Every structure is written in structure tokens, then in C-alpha cells.
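Translate structure to sequence.
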């Protein structure tokens, strides 16, 4: 159960239409696997809430094995604005419930005050505001936009619990992948990490559907793997 928190980060790999005016609304469903076995399912929804504001929400729940027995349930909600530079987070909230335990995290972005307030249970950290800052859930929204614009290597400032870190990604070519939604000729993207990090993140995105992520694989230092595969999407 210690890796259940990873489900939500991967559930964030949701579709985004790379348009100058912002992404198109959608609902997408993914199956979630742990070490090759189905563990649960994730539903991701994007909706426009204003002329330049959007909300991205995800709900991941355990349906098999210990995840089902423990009633694993994770929700994540991001609000963001869209400008000519792409998305920027305005707020983020994460809630995880497993058995009798629960956990909450949040981010509040305040450009006027030049700060980002990060809360995790009783801990609170004030981080410096960075223009174009993202939370982990909307990183793929920015990634889809940049791939559609022809960029092969990108980097983003991403706010986490205690810092704003730079995350780098690189497109490494085209590859056919098989997912429940069908066979897809996808663009393979890898997160660039420091040598010896011992972790890897790989995402396959469909250029024919606005770089919708169709598969993702996260490998941890201990060899554990969390994978997501697209089941279906509705625009």
C-alpha cells in the first residue's frame, strides 16, 4: 500500500488539446496497474470554468486486491489559468483515503504576494512564486501543448510540498503501444533525471488526439512499477 500515492500522480496524465485558446474539455478513463496486475481505475475530467480558467480533477480508486479491500480512494483537483505561455496553476488539492487513514495536501498560488503556500497535514511551507508555475497534475497539459508546437525538450517549474523544482522532459521518438482503447502510434517522452536517480518516468502520447497520454510507466528504486493505460475518452 505504500505506493498508492503514486496512483494520483500518474492519474494526472490526462489529455489536453494543444490550442492557443486553451485545452478542450474531456473525460478520460484509465486502468491502473501495479507490477503488471490491475490495481484500480482512474477517471480524469477537464472543464472550462471561465474565459481563461480551467479545472482538472481526477478520481482514482482501488478495484482489485489489497487496494480494493482497503477502500483506496484518491482525489486530486487543480485550477489553472491559460495565457499565451500556456497553463499556470492557481490552486491544487490532494486527498487520499486508505482504510482508516487519510491525507490531504494543497497549494495556493498568489502572484500578487509573490508566494506559493504549500500545506501537508500540519506542515506549512511558503515558497517563492515563479511565473508559469505548475502543480504535478497539470504538467501533461503543458507537455501536450509543447509537443504540438514541435518542441522535443522542455522544462517546467513545478511546485511540490517543500520547493519549486525544475522538471525536464525529452521526446525520444515514435512507438506503437497497445492499450485497452486500441493500438496507437504514440510519441514516447521520458522525464530527464540526474544519473543514478534510480527512478524513471515514461509517457506515450497520441499526436492524432492532441497528444493525449495513452500509457505511462513509473519505475521506483525498489523495482516497483505503476502503470496506466487508456481505456476510453470522451470530448
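Result:
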Amino acid at each position: 500500500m505504500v505506493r498508492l500515492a503514486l496512483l494520483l500522480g500518474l492519474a494526472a496524465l490526462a489529455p489536453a488539446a494543444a490550442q492557443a485558446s486553451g485545452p478542450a474539455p474531456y473525460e478520460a478513463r484509465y486502468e491502473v496497474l501495479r507490477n503488471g496486475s490491475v490495481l484500480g481505475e482512474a477517471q480524469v475530467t477537464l472543464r472550462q470554468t471561465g474565459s481563461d480558467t480551467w479545472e482538472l480533477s481526477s478520481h482514482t480508486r482501488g478495484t482489485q486486491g489489497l487496494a480494493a479491500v482497503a477502500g483506496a480512494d484518491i482525489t486530486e483537483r487543480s485550477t489553472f489559468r491559460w495565457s499565451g505561455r500556456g497553463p499556470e496553476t492557481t490552486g491544487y488539492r490532494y486527498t487520499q483515503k486508505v482504510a482508516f487513514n487519510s491525507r490531504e495536501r494543497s497549494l495556493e498560488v498568489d502572484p500578487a504576494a509573490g508566494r506559493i503556500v504549500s500545506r501537508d497535514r500540519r506542515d506549512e511551507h511558503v515558497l517563492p512564486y515563479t511565473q508559469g508555475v505548475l502543480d504535478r497534475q497539470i504538467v501533461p497539459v503543458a507537455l501536450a501543448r509543447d509537443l504540438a508546437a514541435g518542441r522535443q525538450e522542455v522544462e517546467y517549474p513545478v511546485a511540490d510540498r517543500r520547493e519549486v523544482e525544475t522538471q525536464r522532459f525529452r521526446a525520444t521518438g515514435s512507438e506503437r503501444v497497445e492499450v485497452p482503447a486500441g493500438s496507437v502510434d504514440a510519441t514516447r517522452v521520458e522525464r530527464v533525471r540526474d544519473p543514478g536517480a534510480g527512478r524513471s518516468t515514461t509517457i506515450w502520447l497520441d499526436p492524432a488526439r492532441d497528444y493525449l497520454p495513452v500509457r505511462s510507466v513509473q519505475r521506483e528504486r525498489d523495482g516497483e512499477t505503476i502503470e496506466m493505460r487508456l481505456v476510453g475518452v470522451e470530448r
